[in-house]
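Hi L.,

You mentioned the student needs an example of a multi-chain input paired with its predicted structure. This one should do, with 618 residues in total across all chains.
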Amino acid sequence: MRVYGLHAGLIALLLALHFVLPAYHHGNLARVMVLASYAMGYNLLFGYTGLLSLGHALFFAAGMYGMGLGVQHLGLSPAPALLAGLGAGAVVSAGLAALALRTGGVAFMIVTLMFAQAGYLTVLYFGAYTRGDEGFVIQQAQRMLWGIDLSDPGNRYLAALILFGCCLMLSLWLVRAPFGRVLVAIRENEERVRMLGYDVFAHKFAAMVISGTMAGAAGAAYGLLFGYAGATFASVQYSIFPLLWVLLGGAGTVLGPFIGTLFMFYLIDLSSGITTAYMLIAGVALVLLTLFAPQGLMGEVRRRLWRGLP
Amino acid sequence: MDLGPYLVLATLEGAVTAAVLALTAVGLSLVFGVMRVVNIAHGEFFMLGAVIAWAIAQAVAGYPAVGFALALVAAPLIVGALAVAADMTILKRLEYDPERTIVATIGLLYIIQQLTLMGYGPDARPVTPPFNTRLAIPWFEKGADGWALIWPWGLGTTSYKLAVIGAAVVILCAVWALMARTRIGLVMRATQADREMALAFGIPVERVYALVFGLGAGLAALAAVLIVPIQQAHYLMGADPLLLSFIVVIIGGLGSLPGTVVAAVLIGLSDGIISVFFSPTLAKILATLLVGLVLVFRPQGLFGGRGA
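Structure written out for the whole complex:
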């Protein structure tokens, strides 16, 4: 009960912040919440199942382009376009899971990296539709969801909060359900789980599809809320970001992805005032984290303060 | 021009690509083979080699041959030393855990890349080749009075490009000799075969690892110095060699040096030929998909070899 209280409390806090934050941070927080949903999807696979993917940008971009191309070329309205994005994320992640889960360890990382790279290049190759690196803007008129203008900052914040809340509660419920327990067991000792009679492949497959669909949902929402879809979101960088956020916040904790995203977002935001080489911060953070705090921020909290933190 | 001269030209360009690629990929393969570490920062060591070569050439401006010769020696040593330092400060402390080292080398990639951006700037800068004679290549054509020797416009290469191919062959032979014929090579192969047993026999495994990591990075830097008079030095130039090296190492079989060289020649040549006839983006898509599928269905590589 305490656990649900904590997570519901975070959502309530974010809702309260909607009324008090100044415009700049209000906009930032909306962005952080969407990106945190992406990170939570990543966390289900990396943090709980122990599968390190270097290709999640593929799912994020699948969602974004599933939505964006639908709006741009098929004239879909936002609701079916969002569903199209969600579907694209699910289909692409199921396809990659069927292939990549035949491997493990380092090979899994490289396979996901390669397919994501192929996906990125495909976006560039079909530049006639996707406008490649330059990307395309989704017009305000195309962003009216049931009469609500999603380009309005207030509505955008609330929409981001709804997405974030759904992903948070879904993650929390999943990892506390028997299904999530099996995932953690797979992370800890795959052989033993197999010996106990669980279908390891099916569980991994389901985890990867849920993770990819969540990433796709975040991608579709990002495109719709901020009105832009571009090839950058499919690049390797966007596969590394969720890894970084999750590592920073704490892999295998439900709140970790949000904390990590928030922290990193403001770190880069502040440092970009000093230098253009802001990825340096990301690099240094990655190295220091792997060296000194592989558990991340929430991991440390769990270790020192609250052992039952999910 | 007909198809024939085009093919000759593409093959020559491809051979230069293959030569440089073989050096870079052998460095990556060595590190993976001996240390079981996937070095994502490998492309950045390549980039550093090119940038340092530019800096040295700048320092002794006026004598391009001297500057280049100096760069050829100094750049790999500097980059190698940097890599050894990175190994001892970071990788060693991670106990060479495969997954954590990948994350750490990704961090290293961004650090090197962004520091270069801050120090060297976003411009692409050329290095003058030490010698650069144009060599035209003759071609046979059936004219009105039988076969005749012609010199098609645009069909030719430079002495420097041929020298790059030659140098790569010499260096690869040297690496082979080092691995197969010297004591230090024996120690490296022993460590590769069985780390625990090597430790038990008193081999200083951690020093071997540092050496191998430095050697791998040095080879990448050497390849970059060779290519920088043809391409230009740029802070983002590491991405393509990294991707291509990955492709080569995986297709050649992880950790197998002969397989790596064969795959480098194959990929380098076909890359040259394919990009003449098809869109380079399409060629890259097919190549990355091939790597993914090879890893899924034939993890030991296309050329047999021992499994990873």
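You could point out the following to them. The interface with chain A takes residues 38, 90, 93-94, 98-100, 102-104, 106-111, 113-115, 117-118, 243, 246, 250, 279, 281-282, 284-285, 288-289, 291-293, 295-297, 299, 308 of chain B (CB under 8 Å). Chain B has a mean pLDDT of 83.

Best wishes,
N.
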